[in-house]
Amino acid sequence: MARKSQKTPYKDNLEYFFAISYPKENSNENKSATRSFFSKPSSDIWHYFLPGQTVADLPSARSKPLEHVIEEKQKDIILSNNTVISNNGWVLKRVTNVHLGTSTPPPESRKRRLSDPDTLEESQKKIILKHQQKKETSKGVMATQETSIETEKISVVPSGSKGFRVEADILEEDSTAPEIKADKKPPLTKEQNQIYQLVVYGQQNLFFTGSAGTGKSVLLREIISTMTQLYGDSIAVTASTGIAAFHIGGTTLHSFAGVGLGQKSVGEHVAQILNSQTTCERWRTTKTLIIDESKKIYEFYMV
Ligand SMILES: Nc1ncnc2c1ncn2[C@@H]1O[C@H](COP(=O)(O)OP(=O)(O)OP(=O)(O)O)[C@@H](O)[C@H]1O
Questions:
Q1: Atom 12 (ligand 1): residue with closest C-alpha?
Q2: CB 210 less than 6 A from any atom of ligand 1
Q3: Phi, psi of 83 (to 5 degrees)
Q4: Most Cβ neighbours (<10 Å): which of 44, 53, 180, 213?
């Protein structure tokens, strides 16, 4: 499905990355790494990305997952034209299931532990997660709205070779933040709805395709949105290429599968997967696998 760059692919998706500060080594602020680590950043360098997105998924980016970025705090890391982790040590991390844009506190069920439970070390701190959303107004002008979410129990824990991991319980949304009204979506067509029903409620294995502009992307986004709400983490959203994955808030199929470039034998890949607890867990917990741009997946990979 061809993508249109002016679209904000994250708008239907309620999962975000957030940035946290890291002190410059030669800065006066570097009195306490822990305290500075949690210092509130100025809003103009907050960035957010799609769930599961890695630096490798972005154009002109280094091929390193975001969770590695924290180890590179002294370097400029250009993610895309307007998205930079600068050399003042800003890092990006993912926060999942942060629901934005309403003035009511999230229900109990929306409080989520955002990372693995096997924490090595915890710090109880508060941080304000800021969310900026660019909206196209009726006059075609891009307006920016900002929402804050307060969290506590932020934990930054060492995570072996992967640098650090961040955990947070979302407490409540900032009730003073302006409400971002959901874009008015057109209803699905009869054909789109038929597929939607089969996938979401009929739980059928399904392949759908169509010519350019027939509404595949709109349908897929609707399916992902509903299924994520209904089934949460058991849905894996993937695509054959990083850029395609970016547009639907997923990861590459290779990244999901944990098989690197996918060029080894099946046996070697199985061993590779079994060797990684995280990958094994992902395979085990995934009940629905969504693959966009699936025709680009090599035949051998679809065994
Ligand atoms: N149910 C619908 N009602 C109104 N407009 C729709 C509907 N579905 C899709 N559209 C519009 O049709 C256009 C094409 O849709 P979409 O981008 O989903 O097609 P596509 O099949 O993914 O195209 P491509 O293969 O070129 O990416 C978009 O402008 C979209 O907003």
A1: 215
A2: yes
A3: -130, 115
A4: 53
The two tokens of residue 150 are 């307060």
The pLDDT tens digits for 87-145 are 233 333 333 222 222 223 334 433 333 333 333 233 222 333 333 334 444 444 444 44
Is the CB of 184 inside a 6 Å radius of any atom of ligand 1? no
Nearest-10 crossing angle of helices 190-200, 216-231: 30
Question: Distance between CA atoms of 217 and 226, rounded to whole angstroms?
Answer: 14
With a 6 A CB cut-off, is 216 part of the ligand 1 pocket?
A: yes
CA 295 – CA 285 distance, rounded (Å): 25
The vertex-163 CA angle with 268 and 53, nearest 5°, equals: 70
How far away, in angstroms, is 106 Cα from ligand 1 center?
32
Neighbours of 141 (CB within 10 A): 8
Q: DSSP labels for 25-64?
A: TTSTTTT-HHHHHTPPPPGGG-----TT--GGGSTT--S-
Cβ of residue 267 lying under 6 Å from some atom of ligand 1:
no
Strands (E), 101-234: 126-136, 142-158, 164-173
CA–CA gap between residue 276 and residue 267 (Å, rounded) = 15
User: What does the pLDDT look like over 233-268, one tens digit per residue?
Assistant: 888 999 888 888 888 888 888 888 888 877 788 888
Dmax (CA) for the chain in angstroms is 62
